Amino acid sequence: MTDLSRSALILVDIQNDFLPGGALAVPDGDGILEAVNALARHPFRAVIATQDWHPPRHCSFRTQGGPWPVHCVAGTHGADFPQTLLPEPVTHIIRKGVLQGRDSYSGFLDNDRATSTGLDELLKGLDIEHVVICGLALDYCVTATALDAVKCGYRTDVVPQACRGIAPDPGDALKKLEKQGVLLKSLNTF
């Protein structure tokens, strides 16, 4: 078994609005929940869930000129984690996309590439060296989070079977991750 005492599991945006029936559903998004829950049972030092947490007139919404439908509005059912995601292993929640005029795909930085979500500071405070990342959507927020993790100096793994993307073929996103030094790991590695 892998020593996970200086490792954190990052669950990216596993929220009702990104699951089937949600406002911005990722195809087969709920298909990751069993794998995610299995990963979260391992003895990571921390299990951190990122959460889109938008104000009602967020810049990313089509109604405000953005590319996406209204989704993950702070305090709504759509922004909540699904009941099928085990809450017990989650030790910390990082909310992102909280400012009306700025979006945040990455769990580390807003899209302005200057405003921190606090995730890097949290990981450093916990003496984390290695992160394992899974969640939704692979080709947007998971990729952005993994690439920022590498830039911040963390050994970074992504578990493809615990991710789903908007694109039907994950190949391009996975190649981009590997090219930047992210390791793709299988669920049974941990």
Automatic annotation (TrEMBL):
Pathway: Cofactor biosynthesis; nicotinate biosynthesis; nicotinate from nicotinamide: step 1/1. Its EC number is 3.5.1.19. Keywords: Hydrolase, Metal-binding, Pyridine nucleotide biosynthesis. One of its GO terms (molecular function) is metal ion binding. It comes from the Bacteria. One of its GO terms (biological process) is pyridine nucleotide biosynthetic process. Residues 7-172 form the Isochorismatase-like domain. It holds the Pfam family Isochorismatase. Gene3D superfamilies: Isochorismatase-like (3.40.50.850). Transmembrane segments: none annotated. Belongs to the isochorismatase family. This is nicotinamidase. It comes from Gluconobacter oxydans (Gluconobacter suboxydans). The lineage of its organism: Bacteria, Pseudomonadati, Pseudomonadota, Alphaproteobacteria, Acetobacterales.
